[in-house]
Amino acid sequence: MKKIMNLWIIISLAVILSSCARMPVKPAPSLTQEIYPQLTGPIVRQDIFHVVAPGETLWRISKMYNVKIEDITRANNLNKSTALEIGQRLRVPQAAPIRPVIALFPSDKWKYIIIHHSATDAGSSLNLNELHKRRGWAGIGYDFVIDNGTDGKGDGQIEVSPRWIKQEKGAHCQAADMNSQGIGICLVGNFSKEAVSEKQMVALVYLVNILREYYKIPKEKIMGHGQVPGARTECPGKYFPWREFYSELNSNLR
Questions:
Q1: Tens place of pLDDT per residue across the chain (254 aa)
Q2: Is residue 10 included in any domain, yes or no?
Q3: Residue 88 sits in the same domain as residue 138
Q4: 167 and 207 together in one domain
Q5: What is the DSSP string of 23-84?
Q6: Domain residues for 120?
Q7: 72 falls within a domain
C-alpha cells in the first residue's frame, strides 16, 4: 500500500436526536489523497445529484459537499425543516468533492471494533438498509459502511449509518454481545472470492485508527466477525488481508 499522505478532513458535530446529548468532537487525523484526490489541488465545484442515504440530513449533506443548507433547499424547493426521505434525489448546486463527516461521541460502551463484508459484489448503505429491513431489523445494522465504487458511491467512500449517529445498539454480531459493545464496520464486497480494494483498505485503516484512539480500543479487540467467540461465519472473508491491515494500523496510528 502506498504511503498515506496528509490531508485535513472536517469532522463536525452530529445532529443528535433527543435520546442522545449534543456533544463536541475533536479533529480527526488526516485522510489520504488516494481516496479523495480532488481535495489536494484546486477544488472544482459542480452541480451534482445526491441520493439520500439512511441517516442523512440537510445539515450532514451540506457538510459532505461544503455547500450551504440554504443553497440546497433553494435548489430543491425545500425549507430547512423539511425531513428528507431515504432514496430521495437532491440537486446539490456547486458541490465540492465529497468528504466524510464522522462524529465522535464520548462513551464508555464501545470496547471492540468488528469488521464485516457485505458478501455482495455491489452495494451501499442504501441497499444494505433495505436488505436488513426485509430481515425484520430496524434498518441497517452496521455503524459504518465503506463502499467499493458501486451503487453510485466512490471506492473507499465512508458512509455513516443512523445507528452510529444515534449511538444505538447494532445489529451486526449477536455473538459475545458485540451488538452492544462493538462498533460494526462493513466493507462492500465478497472477500471470500475477491480482494479488498486498495482504497477500501486505506479508508478502513483511517476510520479504525480514529475510533481505536478515541475509544481506547486495543488492537486485540479489533477483529473480524468470524473471530468473535461463538460466531459461526467466514465474515469478512478468507481473503481479507489481516497482516497488511494490522501492519497499517501500527504504522498509521498517531
A1: 443 333 323 333 333 222 233 343 444 444 545 555 545 567 789 999 999 999 999 999 999 999 999 999 999 999 878 889 999 999 999 999 988 889 899 999 999 999 999 999 999 999 999 999 999 899 999 999 999 999 999 999 999 999 999 999 999 999 999 999 999 999 999 999 999 999 999 999 999 999 999 999 999 999 999 999 999 999 999 999 999 999 998 766 55
A2: no
A3: no
A4: yes
A5: ---PPPPP--TTTSGGGGSPPPPEEEEEEPPTT--HHHHHHHHT--HHHHHHHTT--TTPPP
A6: 112-252
A7: yes
